[in-house]
Inverse folding.
């Protein structure tokens, strides 16, 4: 906790000094505050749009004296990030108190190799990704919630998180991917949900044993764009997590080539995208299934299970040529109530980027997630649902670090008769 606050204070001072140096960029005659633009070049002087000419994303460690730039020009890109979260159960839940909660961190280091500069053919990408995570299960130990209040919560691990090759054909009209991957990267992904920390907004709890963090898996994925704005993506993953095999810790192949038909995780999604001027929207309709054997809550066995899901994003306000943007989202999923503790999930939210006017990179958001719990008598939940309300503000201190205070109010934690919980989370994110 001290590490988060001391680091935060340092960057607050750094930003204050930067703001003082750029004070003359404000025009007192304007009707309101404006975004500060530094060394903006005229539009006609912009560099041509190509991977080698694009401005690299800002990072804490910079371009390493030009080494990163040269690597990128030759098809190699190294990137990494560090996320630190601190969690407090302020009131209610399982074990509230000023010292409750826990510290989490996730370090990610990855190398991406593109085919065109290196092998002189377009559309190929190879990615290898390593992750290290440490933390506590604060949701169960302190809050008592069924849905994790922090999507980063997981048992400690050091793992080869991803190792895949992707080939794109015909200007992204068709692509395939083979290797160890995170299913969330290509399925059930939600543009504006990603800012929220509660796990329900990131990983639908109705998708049982979804091969995502911290348990990605060996996969084969293909996607086809039929016409502009309409595409379909299908994937088969090693679904042996349903049998207790930790695919995230299993190197590359896992059990993909070992009786896959008995534990295949199958998923397909149709995506529809549209744009009315600046008002971009997206609808994803998908279904998943797993061929493994599942034990019902009454002790009997069922061969295979699955369910549908839906994701929706829509920009509802975006003035032309400005950074301000307001968006809404909706998510839904359902599962077999004799197998899944959460048999229906509804989530909806609102995100406003540039809400402060002169801080166009900052954003604020509100979301609600409703988990309908199984009524199976063998589980014996005392409540029919667990519901969370989440409020966030993401403060971009520099282009490569942001601080996010996040407040969650959990109703009926764990579906039990626990007091409703008030939870505070603090996140620091560094692009290294």
């Amino acid at each position: 906790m001290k590490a988060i606050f001391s680091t935060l204070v340092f960057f607050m001072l750094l930003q204050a000094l930067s703001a003082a140096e750029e004070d003359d960029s404000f025009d007192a005659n304007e009707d309101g505050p404006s975004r500060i633009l530094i060394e903006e070049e005229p539009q006609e002087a912009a560099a041509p749009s190509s991977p080698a000419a694009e401005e690299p994303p800002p990072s804490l460690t910079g371009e390493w004296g030009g080494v990163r730039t040269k690597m990128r020009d030759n098809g190699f890109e190294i990137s990494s990030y560090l996320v630190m979260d601190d969690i407090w159960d302020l009131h209610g839940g399982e074990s509230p108190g000023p010292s409750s909660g826990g510290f989490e961190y996730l370090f990610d280091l990855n190398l991406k190799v593109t085919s065109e500069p290196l092998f002189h053919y377009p559309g190929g990408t190879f990615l290898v990704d390593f992750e290290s995570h440490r933390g506590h299960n604060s949701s169960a130990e302190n809050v008592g919630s069924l849905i994790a209040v922090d999507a980063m919560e997981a048992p400690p691990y050091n793992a080869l998180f991803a190792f895949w090759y992707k080939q794109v054909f015909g200007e992204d009209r068709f692509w395939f991917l083979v290797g160890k991957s995170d299913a969330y990267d290509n399925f059930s992904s939600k543009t504006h949900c990603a800012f929220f920390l509660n796990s329900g907004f990131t990983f639908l709890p109705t998708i049982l044993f979804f091969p995502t963090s911290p348990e990605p898996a060996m996969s084969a994925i293909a996607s086809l764009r039929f016409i502009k704005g309409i595409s379909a993506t299908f994937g088969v993953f090693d679904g042996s997590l349903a049998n207790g095999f930790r695919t995230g810790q299993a190197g590359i192949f896992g059990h993909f080539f070992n009786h896959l038909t008995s534990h295949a995780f199958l998923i397909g999604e149709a995506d529809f995208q549209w744009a009315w001027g600046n008002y971009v929207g997206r609808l994803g309709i998908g279904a998943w299934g797993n061929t493994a054997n599942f034990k019902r809550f009454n002790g009997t066995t069922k061969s295979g299970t699955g369910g549908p899901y839906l994701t929706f994003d829509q920009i509802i306000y975006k003035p032309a040529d400005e950074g301000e943007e307001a968006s809404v989202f909706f998510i839904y999923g359902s599962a077999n109530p004799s197998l899944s503790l959460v048999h229906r999930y509804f989530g909806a939210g609102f995100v406003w980027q540039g809400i402060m006017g002169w801080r166009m990179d900052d954003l604020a958001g509100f979301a609600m997630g409703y988990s309908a719990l199984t009524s199976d008598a063998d589980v014996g939940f005392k409540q029919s649902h667990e519901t969370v309300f989440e409020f966030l503000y993401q403060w971009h201190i520099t282009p490569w670090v942001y601080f996010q205070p996040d407040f969650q109010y959990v109703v009926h934690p764990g579906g039990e008769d626990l007091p409703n919980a008030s939870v505070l989370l603090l996140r620091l994110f560094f692009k290294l």
Summary: The domain at 82-103+142-158+172-431 is CATH 2.40.160 (Porin). Confidence is low (pLDDT under 50) at residues 9-14, 16-53. Helices lie at 2-21, 67-73, 115-119, 138-143, 199-202.
